[in-house]
Structures are given as C-alpha cells and as structure tokens.
UniProtKB/TrEMBL annotation, chain A:
The keyword Nucleotide-binding is assigned to this record: no
InterPro entries attached to this UniProt entry: EMC3, EMC3/TMCO1
Alphabetical UniProt keywords: Membrane, Transmembrane, Transmembrane helix
Membrane topology recorded in Swiss-Prot or TrEMBL: Multi-pass membrane protein
Full protein name: ER membrane protein complex subunit 3
GO cellular component entries: EMC complex
Pfam families the UniProt entry points to: EMC3_TMCO1 (PF01956)
Similarity comment: Belongs to the EMC3 family.
Subcellular location: Membrane
Protein role: The EMC seems to be required for efficient folding of proteins in the endoplasmic reticulum (ER).
TrEMBL record, chain B:
GO CC terms in record: EMC complex
Protein family per UniProt: Belongs to the EMC1 family.
Name assigned to this protein: ER membrane protein complex subunit 1
Matching InterPro entries: Beta-prop_EMC1_1st, EMC1, EMC1_C, PQQ_b-propeller_rpt, Quinoprotein_ADH-like_sf, WD40/YVTN_repeat-like_dom_sf
Biological process per Gene Ontology, one example term: protein folding in endoplasmic reticulum
Gene3D superfamilies xrefs: YVTN repeat-like/Quinoprotein amine dehydrogenase
Self-association and partners: Component of the ER membrane protein complex (EMC).
Transmembrane domains' residue ranges: 923-943
Residue stretches making up the EMC1 first beta-propeller domain: 20-416
Domain ER membrane protein complex subunit 1 C-terminal: 733-952
Keyword annotations of the record: Endoplasmic reticulum, Glycoprotein, Membrane, Signal, Transmembrane, Transmembrane helix
Topology with respect to the bilayer: Single-pass type I membrane protein
Signal peptide per UniProt: 1-19
C-alpha cells in the first residue's frame, strides 16, 4: 500500500486545536453580562450566601460569637425576613418561562450551544471535504476485527486490516483526546472541548446559579436554617486551647 | 455515549460508493470511437446540405456503421450502428445519406446523423441508387425494384417484371424475348440515368438489362441481353458510376464495360499477372486500374456520345502492390488522383497524359492504400490544386486503417483496424525509481545480511552525494508545484508513473496486427507490428502472454511463436512449428522464469520458446473438443501429454462457454467474518472452471463447476425455460461464480427477463468449520476433498449482458466490482459484489449481526443506476470484452474494453482510500489554518478584556 503524504494529519491537528481555541473565545464573547439584580433579589441571594459562608467557616469563630450569629440568622430565615417575595411562600413555583432572569439564562445556554454546533457543523463539512475516505495511518499493534467500525469509518472495504486507520476515525479519536491540550492552553474551565459542553447540555441545572427557575427560595432558607442548627452542634473553634498548644510546641 | 456512536455512524451515510466521480469523468477515462474498415463504393465526400461549402467524408463500414468524418481533423461528426449484415450500401442524396443493410433501408440527415426514415422489407437489398429527383431506387434480391419517397420512405411504385419464376416452372415466358429461362436469375445492380432506371441481372449465363421509366415505374423497353459470349459477371462487379456497368468474363481475363444506355460493351484484356482490377468512372471518363503483386498502373478511357469507348492514355506502372485511384470532377474537369503505397499522390487530368502535380508525403509512413476517395479543388491561378484524399489501407495486419492526405501531408489517421481486436495482454512498465538500481538490489538479496547491509549503506551514501544537492535545489520548486496542484504529466517511453496507472496493453487484431496501446496516455498506439506477411491469411491467436519483463510472447494458431520487445515493438524471436495449436498455458519454471506450454493438434506438447531449458511441474490444460465434450489434459515435465478426464454433458446439451479463474486473483482473507465474529471459510480452488451448456429442445441451461485437474464436478445447476438463443455469460473469481441468462416465458415461479445468478462456495456449511478439508492449508484436487457448500441467489437484471469482468487490485483487499458489458451503446455497468451477495436476508430486515456484516435486505431486481455506468456519457459501440489489471494503488483497478471502440478507464470499487482526491486543495487547507490562527490571536485580547470587565461589573 502506498501512502501519498502525511501532512494533512498534522495540519488537521493544528486545525482542531485552533478551532477549539476560537470556539472558547467565541463562547466567552457571546455570553451576555449577568443582568443587574434588583435589591430584593440581591438581598435574598446574599443572605443565603451569608448563611452558607457562616456554616462553612464556623470554626474561625468562638462558640459564643457563632451561636449568636446563628441564632439571628436561623430566626430570620424561619421568619422569611430576606425573601424577595414573602407573599409567594407555600405557593407552587411559577412557570420558569415567565421569569425574566430564567429567560436570560436560557438564552445564554442557547448561545453556548450555537457556539458549539455551528463550528462543529462547519468543521465536519470541512473535514468531509478534505479528509474523508482515505487511510491516514497505521497503528503499530494488531487489533481485533471489533475495532473495524471504530477505526475505519468511511472506508468501503471489508478486507482491510484493522491496523489501518481512516482519516475520519482519526478525527474522532482526536476529538476526544484533545481535552488535556485545551486545558493546558485555555485553563481548566474552557469551552473549547465539546465533551464538557456536551455534559453541560445534558445536565443544565448543574451549571445554573442557586436560584434557578423553579426553585423555591423559602425552602432553601429553611434547609439552610436546618444546616446551621446541625453545624451549631458540632462546632469546634480552631484556636480553642491555643495557649497550651503553643507552649507544648515550644 | 449515544452521541459518540452517533458521530461514528455519521460518515457511513456520507460515503456512498459511486462508479465514477464527476471530476474524474473525461480525465481518467478515454474512448477511441472506431467505425471499422470503410467499404469501397460506400465511401464518399459529400456536402451535408446543398448550400454548405465544406464537405464531410461519409463512410459505411464492414461493421455496418455509417459515419460522417470531418476531413479537417478526422473526428467523427456522427455515426450510426446499423443492423449488421453482409450487404451494406450507402449513397449520398441531397441533404441525406441513404443506406441499406440487410433488408432495411434508412435515410439519415447528412448534417446531424438523425434518422429521417426507415423502411424494412422482406428481401435483402442488392443495390440502391439516388435518382436525380432525390428519390431512392432500391433493387432487392428477388428482382423487385422499388422507388421510395425521399421524405417518408414510402414505396412510390414497384416493378416486378424481373419476377423470379416459380421454382417448379422451369420454362416461362420472359418479356418479349421469350427466352427460355430457369429460376436462377440473379439481380446484380441498378443504374440511374436522367429519366430511366436500368436493372442488370444475370440469367442463363448471360447478362441482361431492363430499363424502367423513372416516373411511372413501367418497363420502357424489352429486356435485352448484352453481348453474345457467355458473360458471367463472376468475380468482379463494379457498380461505379450511375451510367456504367462493368463485369469480368468467365475466364477472368477480360474486363468489359458498357456505358448505358448503349449496349455494346468495350472490352479490356487483363494481363496475366494482375491480381486485382478496379474500374472507376465519372460521367464519360472511365479508368481501369490494374494491380499486380509488384506494381500497378491504369488506363484512361473516354466514352463518346454513341457509347463507344476509346483509350485516351495509359498511366505508367509504378512499384508497389497496393495503390488506389480515385476520380473527382471539379470545375468541368475530371481529375485522377493516384495514391501510391508510400503515400505519394499524383494528380492527372483525365484528358492529358502529363501529371498535373505530384506530392511526396513529408511525414512518410507506409500507407498501402486499398481504396480511396478524393476531392480536388483547382486554385484560382490554374496551375496549383488543393487535393485531399481519404485512403483506406491494406497494410498486412491492419486492413482498414484510414488516412487523410492533404497535398502530400498526412493530415490525420484513424486506426480503424483496431475495431477487430481479438486478444490482449497487459504489460507492466518499468519503475523509474528502482530501475537504475535493480541490479544493486539484486546483488543485495544474494549477499549475507552483514555484507548486504554494508552494500546498502555505501549505496545510500553514494546516492546522497550524487542526487542530494540537486534534490535540495529542487525542493522549493517542488513544494510550490505541490501547491499549484496541476495534474501530473504521465511519463513517456517505457516508464510508468508513480501510481502505476500507465500500462501498455498489447492487442492482436483479427487480421494479425499487433499494437501496443498506452492505457495511461489516452489509448495512444505506441507501436505496431504485423504477424502476417502481405497476402497471407492470419489463422488466429491462441495465446498472448507477458513472458518476462518488457517482453510479450504470442502463440499463433497457425504454428508460430513470436516475441516482441513490448516497449518498442522490435521482434526479438520468431519460431515456426507444425502443426497448429490447440491450447496454451503459461507456467512458472522452477528457476522462476515463465514459459508457455502449447498443446498441438497432434496431441503433442511443446514448451515455448523452443530450445529453452526449463523445469516445470506438470500442467493441466482444458481443451474444448467439440460442443459435446471438454477434455482435461496433463502435460508432464518431460512434455508428454495425456488426457486425464473428459466432460460430456447430458444428452441434448451443448457446451457454450468455459471460464476459469483469472491468473491474477489475490485473496485478502481466506474466510468471511460474520457479524458474531465466527468465520465461514471460503472454498478457494485455483483450478475451478465453470462450464455452461444449453439444451435447445428442453429450453434449459446448465452450469457445471469443475475441478480442471481431477475433472470432478463440484456443483451443477439447471435452469428451466431459458431462451437458449441469448448468450449465457459467466465469470469466476475468488470463491464465487456469476452468470447471466435469459429466462423466457415463465415456468412456475420464474420471472421473465435477464437473470444474474451468484454462487458462493464455502468449505463447509457450518461456521468455524473447514469441513472435510480439516486442517489442510489449501484445497487439493488429488485428495478428493468433499464438495464445497454452495450458497446461491438469483437477481433480475434489466439488460442483457455481453460479457463480465471483475475488477482486479494488487492485493485483493479492495472489494470487487463486477463489470457488466451491456449491449448497444449502453456501456459498462459496475455492480458491487456486496449487492450480489447470496447471504442477503430474504423477506425480512437484517438483524444486528447481519447489519454489521454489511448485509441488507434482498431485493429481486437490480436497478440500473446511471451513476454506476463507468462509461458515463460516452457512447461506446460494439465492445466485446472487458479486461482489468491492478495499478500500484491497492484501491484502483485499470479497465480496458475492446472489440469495437476502444475504451479505457480506472475504477476504485472501495473509493480511492489510499490516495488524496483531486479535490484536495492544499492552498485552501493552509489558508484555513492560517486564517484560524489569525482569528484566534485577534479574538484573544477581546476575550481577556471582556472577562476582566465581567469580573468588575459584578
């Protein structure tokens, strides 16, 4: 078997990386600035954050300081003092579509998807135009026939040894193998890698902020109050008995 | 994971197997339209319509093809395949060309070749003339003359007074003459004057003429016989000229001609050594052209008003057996154009003895004219002329090649003799990159490992100093050239191109001509040679082989072996032997050489070339004795032949075809992997032959698969209700057989139409089992291993198949296409082997395992998809056989078709997976990469700014 040239292989790898980088940038550029929240919504959000922060950093405070802060917060939470919309307590969650903030988030998601789909389509067409239907490399180890469909897509013969990899298959192997390179170039939370974007698409709730559409803020406050009460029982101040420890150390 | 498998499946839909890509059409394929040797009286210069200045050459050929040739460049303006027949006549009318083949008369528009009308009759046509009123007068074999209308072809009147007497009445009255006649009067020719038609016929050893009035279709005078001697127009009948009738007397030594309406013939004695006499006439000028084996000359006669001919002058003899004379009238004068064997043209005025002009052929070749037509135009100065002559050649082996000589210059030539190619072989060309070092490589293989290594390193160092600097110097140019991506030029001479697309095919014509056709360079004829001498009859070829690198060996049936250098056509060796040859085979000797074993008609065998000492294992040949028996013959190493088996089909059956596996038939995989990873082992027997027989009385066709060594029948099948007049064609490759036949009026459960049947042979019907072969490496004919397991399936195909071929690649990895040669101008159709797969599930969708195996649901009809016609738009005519050969690329097979036109192309049955396509643009590729890089660098600062802003705005 004769092979004409190997340049396309290298070229394609650069191309893959470059499109990935570009996609990351495009995704970032297309993301709209988060909308400024109104005062009440901000109050609601930040006060919940306050509770979470208090619980997480409880060890930094002496017990009495913690207890007094906790008691205030738990009382306020249970009262619903920070709620944006105190009247809606106990009512079912509204249609997420009607929430302008939710709409905004969905728009962002759509843009992200577009930034993924458009270059994906383009590059697929491009790959097809340039690299479809020929063998590009030979693996240095034998494989069983089970790998045939994976390694020889676009090759229309049954009798070709599985070692020979078609360019289309090599493209897909690269596609899933380029993540570490993107991480290196663009930092870990990049949008170049389709796999992560894909994951996002499959589980959109994970990436959304705390008060995603359909969440009941009151329930979240109550849950946080519960958490704080539990944290109060297991509190341990980090500098409890520090004098003895220092002396022992000396 | 769904996404993952989704994207993997995607390309499967993208890749669909096509016969030929659009951008490859007209680039990788070539087609030489041929019409065959022109017929002398049916070839003429003629204006396509009255007011056009230029004229075309119209020619009807012995292949019954009517064609118009552009005299400027030799291109065909149009051509029509008429019904093949022994009687072919074509005449020029006003704006039309009328031709008669067999029983039908058709008129074609002279400009575009479209059929104006066609009229079929019950009797064969004998002669055809165009009347001054552009009507068509036709003489039929039963003596009837019909006048056909020029617009519609309808019969205007019929003349039946030459009526043949009933067979039982031996004596009957005939016209006014009341001669005794028997029923064997034979109509001969038809002649047109201004208002009358004259019919010449032969009866009672005499020549008769009857005259008919053109307007009414009634006899104007009684039928009279010309001359008193027993004149038999036997050997020679010249119908030249509407008003001239000529014949040769029974003795063959007197030529007579009569200028109608006179009935007194002039007679010319034919000298004893004359072998051919041609008579030409134009109005009242008559030229008699004599040819002997060594020279030729002519006499010019003038016919006066009373019809008496007198000799004007004689042209002095010139050397050369073959020469041609043609007459042409222009500007009130008649010119005689004489073309000599070396292409020299001499121009005479029929009134003057001195030659007006003489032209020697500048780019001289031996032309050996057989007959010619010319066009002479006197230039205004009165002393110079424009002469162009269309010449049909009689060169031994290449009868019918045509040339156009324009004022002593060979304007163009057409290799019409190649229309009758009967056999061919492929010749591998030399690789320029290894040819120089082939001896050194050879030396390396014969040395010990260490010595060979040292030899190779020193060779490489030498090459580095020798070629290195030049290589580096040429580097920028080469890179630039790679980007410009202009089509690589095919090399010339004996070198092949990098991919091995350039190969020679050596063909042999029915007349004994040998020609090397360069398949890589659009079918150009590289050299030609003749297996016969002048005047000899070629008895056919029984074998043509590539005997060693660059040499072709030809075994002629008549008993001779000729070897040519395949690159330049120089005869290397010629050996004659007796008697004639029955069959040949090429075998490898123990020394790695190739020799030819020929079985002679006295049942002795000889090894060719004779006198070569070669040891070989015994050879098994298959010889078709008659339509009722096939013999297997074993030729032992000491050249003793002994019959081993005889195959006689059941009573009533006669053998039609025998096919064996091709000599080069590599098998990539010995088994077929099924969807569940189990294997069905292929039954691979190099000696398997397929024999087809027909039984005309029972209307059945049978197929027998036979082991040609042991003669045992491996498989047989019989089909009922078969039209036995339609050909049954078969092909064998790898472990399968494909054949086609026509199933006639349906017997129970069969469909009427052309059927394609595929048989696949496996070692056992069980998976992972080798049946009776057990652990044997190969099938052995001697061990009597059991019969193969045969899977078969039948398909309905919309067209008849004239021949099959199977694509052939270097290692057999590429899946195979079956090339079916369709009749008429339909071309060559390629069917992927996976379509003709007997394992396709019938009546249900394939399950997952079958899908993975690449099977799809059985559909009984194979539709003809125009995309899979590898001749695409080209109108190929008269093809009889298709041959294939591998190129250096595994994916590509080279195809050549012959038997009428010549056609060559390349096919990639599994698409070109080992080479970048033509559409691969390096410039676009680099431009995209550069563009993306620039875009990335431009967008990067914007993104950074945006990210920082986003953080601050929170």
């Amino acid at each position: 078997m004769k092979k004409r040239r190997n340049e396309p292989e290298a070229d394609r790898r650069y191309l893959k990386i470059l499109t990935g980088v570009l996609r990351h940038y495009a995704t970032v550029l297309m993301q709209s600035d988060p909308k400024k929240l109104d005062l009440k919504a901000l109050k609601e959000q930040r006060n919940l954050m306050r509770g979470i922060n208090l619980r997480q950093n409880a060890g930094q405070l002496p017990l009495h300081s913690f207890i007094s802060r906790k008691n205030t917060l738990v009382a306020d939470y249970k009262r619903g003092a920070y709620l944006k919309d105190p009247e809606s307590v106990g009512k079912p969650a509204g249609n997420p579509m009607s929430d302008p903030a939710g709409m905004d988030q969905m728009m962002n998601m759509l843009k992200g998807n577009m930034a993924m789909i458009v270059p994906q389509t383009l590059i697929m067409g491009w790959i097809n135009a340039f690299f479809s239907g020929f063998v590009i490399m030979k693996l240095p180890f034998p494989l069983t026939i089970r790998f045939k469909t994976m390694l020889q897509s676009g090759i229309a013969t049954r009798d070709l040894d599985v070692r020979w990899v078609s360019s289309l298959s090599w493209y897909f192997l690269n596609l899933f193998g380029l993540r570490s390179i993107f991480n290196y170039i663009l930092g870990s939370d990049n949008s170049a890698d389709q796999m992560s974007a894909q994951m996002q698409q499959m589980n959109p709730a994970a990436g959304a902020s705390m008060f995603g559409p359909g969440q009941d803020p009151n329930k979240m406050f109550l849950a946080e109050a519960e958490n704080l009460e539990v944290a109060g029982g297991t509190h341990e101040w980090v500098i409890e008995g520090v004098e003895d420890r220092v002396l022992q150390f000396l | 994971m769904r996404f993952f498998s989704g994207v993997l499946l995607l390309p499967c839909f993208v890749a669909s197997v096509l016969g030929i890509f659009k951008d490859d059409a007209y680039h990788t394929d070539w087609h030489i339209p041929l019409i065959g040797p022109s017929l002398p009286t049916s070839t003429f210069f003629h204006q396509p319509n009255q007011d056009s200045k230029a004229s075309l050459i119209y020619s009807l050929t012995d292949r019954s093809i009517l064609a118009a040739i552009n005299p400027k460049d030799g291109e065909l303006v149009w051509r029509q395949q008429l019904k093949e027949s022994a009687v072919n006549v074509a005449r020029a009318g006003n704006g039309v060309v009328v031709s008669a083949t067999g029983t039908s008369v058709s008129s074609f528009n002279a400009g575009n070749g479209r059929l104006v009308w066609e009229n079929a009759f019950s009797q064969n046509v004998v002669d055809l003339r165009i009347t001054p009123a552009n009507k068509v007068a036709v003489l039929f074999a039963d003596g009837v003359v019909r006048l056909l209308d020029d617009k519609s072809g309808d019969v205007a009147w019929e003349w039946r007074e030459l009526d043949r007497c009933a067979d039982d009445v031996l004596v009957c009255a005939y016209g006014d003459a009341n001669f005794l006649r028997n029923s064997t009067d034979v109509p001969l020719s038809l002649h047109v004057t201004k208002s009358t038609l004259t019919v010449a016929s032969q009866s009672l050893k005499k020549l008769w003429v009857s005259t008919i009035d053109l307007a009414t279709g009634k006899s104007t005078s009684s039928t009279t016989h010309i001359s008193t001697a027993a004149d038999i127009p036997a050997k020679h009948q010249a119908h030249h000229g509407d008003e001239l009738l000529s014949w040769t007397e029974e003795s063959g030594r007197t030529l007579k001609f009569v200028a109608l309406p006179s009935t007194t013939p002039a007679s010319v004695a034919i000298p004893n050594d004359v072998v051919e006499t041609v008579l030409l006439s134009s109005k009242d000028d008559v030229v008699v052209h004599f040819k002997t084996h060594g020279e030729s000359w002519a006499h010019v006669y003038k016919v006066d008003a009373k019809g008496v001919a007198s000799e004007v002058y004689a042209v002095r003899p010139r050397l050369g057996a073959h020469s041609a004379i043609s007459l042409n009238s222009a500007g009130g004068k008649t010119y005689l154009v004489w073309t000599l064997p070396n292409g020299e043209t001499v121009l005479y005025d029929v009134a003057k003895e001195e030659a007006l002009a003489s032209y020697t052929l500048i780019n001289a070749t031996e032309i050996d004219p057989r007959h010619s037509v010319s066009e002479v135009v006197p230039r205004p100065d009165g002393t110079s002329f424009a002469v162009r002559t269309f010449v049909s050649s009689a060169a031994p082996g290449f009868v019918g090649d045509s040339y156009l000589i324009r004022n002593g210059e060979l304007a163009w030539s057409r290799k019409e003799s190649l229309v009758s190619v009967v056999a061919s072989t492929w010749i591998e060309l030399l690789d320029p990159s290894t040819e120089e070092i082939v001896e050194e490589l050879d030396a390396e293989t014969h040395k010990s490992v260490g010595a060979a290594y040292v030899h190779r390193v020193t060779r490489h160092l030498n090459e580095l100093s020798l070629y290195g600097p030049a290589w580096i110097q040429a580097l920028p140019q080469r890179i630039l050239g790679g980007f410009v991506n202009k089509g690589t030029e095919m090399p010339t001479g004996k070198w092949r191109d990098f991919f091995g697309f350039r190969k020679f095919v050596i063909v042999i014509t029915a007349e004994g001509g040998v020609a090397a056709i360069d398949v890589g360079r659009n079918g150009e004829v590289v050299w030609q040679a003749s297996l016969v001498n002048a005047g000899e009859k070629f008895r056919g070829v029984s074998g043509i082989y590539e005997v060693r690198k660059g040499h072709v060996g030809i075994v002629c049936t008549g008993g001779s072996y000729v070897e040519y250098n395949a690159f330049d056509g120089i005869e290397v060796l010629k050996q004659d032997f007796t008697p004639s040859v029955l069959s040949t085979a090429q075998v490898d000797t123990q020394g790695g050489k190739k020799i030819i074993i020929a079985l002679l008609s006295n049942n002795k065998a000889i090894a060719l070339p004779m006198g070569v000492d070669a040891e070989f294992d015994s050879v098994h040949l298959t010889v078709k004795d008659s339509t009722r028996s096939i013999k297997g013959i074993r030729v032992s190493p000491n050249l003793i032949s002994s019959p081993t088996w005889t195959f006689v089909p059941p009573v009533g059956e006669s053998i039609t075809t025998i096919e064996g596996r091709p000599a080069h038939d590599p098998v990539a995989s010995i088994g077929r992997v099924l969807g569940d990873r189990s294997v069905m082992y292929k039954y691979l027997n190099q000696h398997m032959i397929v024999i087809s027989t027909v039984n005309p009385t029972a209307a059945t066709a049978s197929i027998y698969l036979i082991d040609s060594v042991s003669g045992s029948i491996l498989h047989s099948a019989t089909h009922a209700a078969v039209d036995v007049t339609q050909p049954i064609v078969a092909t064998v490759s790898e472990n399968w057989v494909i054949y086609s036949y026509f199933s006639d009026e349906a017997a129970e459960g069969t469909a009427k139409g052309y059927h394609l049947v595929v048989l696949e042979l496996y070692e056992s019907e069980f998976k992972n089992d080798r049946g009776s072969l057990a652990d044997a490496d190969e099938v052995s004919s001697f061990k009597g291993a059991g019969k193969p397991h045969v899977l078969s399936q039948s398909y309905v195909f919309p067209s008849a198949v004239k021949a099959f071929a199977v694509t052939d690649t270097k290692q057999g990895i590429t899946s195979r296409d079956i090339l079916a040669l369709l009749p008429g101008t339909q071309g060559i159709y390629s069917i992927p082997k996976r379509v003709l797969d007997p394992r396709r599930p019938v009546g249900r969708e394939p399950d997952a395992a079958e899908k993975e195996e690449g099977l799809f649901i059985y559909t009984p009809v194979i539709e003809i998809d125009p995309k899979s016609i590898i001749t695409h738009k080209r109108k190929v005519m008269g093809l009889k056989k298709v041959v294939t050969t591998p190129s250096q690329l595994e994916s590509t097979s080279i195809v050549f078709a012959y038997g009428g036109d010549l056609f060559g192309t390349r096919v990639a049955p599994s698409l070109a997976f080992d080479v970048l396509g033509k559409g691969f643009g390096k410039i676009q590729l680099v431009a995209t990469v550069v563009g993306l890089t620039i875009a990335s660098f431009m967008v990067a600062p914007m993104v950074r700014k945006k990210q920082i802003n986003a953080r601050w705005s929170l």
